[in-house]
Amino acid sequence: LVDVLRTFNGSKVAALVIEPRGLINTGNMCFMNAILQILMYCAPFYNFLDMVGKNVAHSFKGDTPLVDTMIMFLREFRVLGASAAFASLAGHKEKEYLETVGEPFVPEYVYGTLREIPRFSSMRRGHQHDAEEFLGFLLDELHEELVKVLEKAGEYAESSPVVTDPSDDGWQQVGPKQRVASTRDTAIRESPVTKIFGGKLRSEFRVPGSKPSVLLEPYQPLQLDIQSPQVNTIIDALKQLTKPETIQGNFNPSRGSNVTATKQVQIEALPSVLILHLKRFQYDNKGGTQKIWKKIGYPLNLTLPKEALSHTQRHQPPAKYRLIGVVYHHGKSASGGHYTVDVLRQDGKHWIRFDDTVIRSVHADEVKVDGKELLPNSQNGFIDEEEGGWETVGHDGGGSMNGQLYGKDSKVAYILFYQRI
């Protein structure tokens, strides 16, 4: 296993096309079903699990029970062939291919493994939970299992950070215009999970009369605030994320107690697969939540705006990504409602929609949301239903919870998966 982990670099490998299978919802498990499905259509992640499964004997009693469980889950999906063989299909052969689906099943062993892991103790079976929170828990647990294997093999023995500026307990970095900044890098052990999904944010804090302080922190996924009326697309949200913020405080005693400092966050490093979490749930001071319903525009092909990138990233070739999946939330609260997911098949051409056991083909135009066509949003993020601009959710797309069908206007994108081209 150590050899596989050491050699995996997340680089492009020919994707294998799998046969879609629905997941049976045994009671409020759609949040988990949506995430498990989208991960199977994330080629770098699938290829990593496939590589481990083919080269390492796995056991649920070993050091990597969740990795072993995910490999077992991956094996539930029949491989139809290499992606190149399906990209150019047409006519009745394409129709036959698109209609080929496997029998739905219950991944009972996945639930069983999760029950034994303390991190998932709050996610009781039969209770709806936040899909983004589950995704975070899942990736964090997989990462920690792999790190423990590498630690045992002594892989991190020489990876301790080098301190070149003992006085600041950090290291000096020369930035734009040859300005020197004191930089601290939040250390994190690298694993195949971070190689696929992990990036870094650069947070720069400037106080008049002092040298800038820079903190590099990992992200996975990238959290996007969409509450502002000025945010109508993910491009807007990315620019908003990196907009300088002014802060008043006693940051430099020699300059008095009321100094204006600035803080700016920029993207320092980008992953192979960029996960964008649209923060739709705002917590009020009473402990409740309110959902931001407004539609956010997102393209099939994304080029990150230069404003969102750090000085280092701006001098790299433009970062281009292709949309490979969208997790939708239906309903009013994160702990309720329903989750569905659209995924781009490994052929890079056809999209399919999963609503637990219901599977259907959808056109790419049904997946993307064109920011140019969005209506102006109201101050609180809600759109007047009479003005349209929403999709209709029916039995094939909306799903039902507790016997209640979520109808018109309840479906909005919640998590976006983009793969680097």
Summarize the entry for a quick read.
The protein has 421 residues and is α+β, with helices and mostly antiparallel strands. It has helices at 2-7, 30-40, 43-55, 65-74, 91-98, 108-115, 131-152, 192-197, 234-241, 311-314, 364-367; strands at residues 16-18, 79-82, 171-174, 180-185, 199-206, 213-219, 222-225, 245-249, 259-269, 273-279, 281-283, 289-291, 301-303, 320-330, 338-344, 351-355, 358-362, 400-401, 404-405, 411-420. It contains 11 helices and 20 strands.
Structure in words:
The protein has about 425 residues and is α+β, with helices and mostly antiparallel strands. Helix content is about 25%, strand content about 25%. It has eleven helices and 20 strands. The strands form five sheets. Strands 7, 10, 13, 14, 15, 16, 17 and 20 form an eight-stranded mixed β-sheet that branches. The chain has a six-stranded mixed β-sheet with strand order 3-4-6-5-9-8. A two-stranded antiparallel sheet has the order 1-2. A hairpin with a 6-residue loop joins strand 5 and strand 6. Helix 2 packs across helix 7 and helix 3 crosses helix 4. The longest helix has 22 residues. The protein starts with a helix and ends with a strand. About 15% of the residues have low confidence.
List keywords for this structure.
eight-stranded mixed sheet; six-stranded mixed sheet; alpha+beta; 11 helices; 26% strand; 421 residues
Write the layout of secondary structure elements.
Blueprint: H1 2-7, E1 16-18, H2 30-40, H3 43-55, H4 65-74, E2 79-82, H5 91-98, H6 108-115, H7 131-152, E3 171-174, E4 180-185, H8 192-197, E5 199-206, E6 213-219, E7 222-225, H9 234-241, E8 245-249, E9 259-269, E10 273-279, E11 281-283, E12 289-291, E13 301-303, H10 311-314, E14 320-330, E15 338-344, E16 351-355, E17 358-362, H11 364-367, E18 400-401, E19 404-405, E20 411-420
Parallel strand pairs: 4-6, 7-10
Antiparallel strand pairs: 1-2, 3-4, 5-6, 5-9, 8-9, 10-20, 11-12, 13-14, 14-15, 14-20, 15-16, 16-17, 18-19
Helix pairs in contact: 2-7, 3-4, 4-6
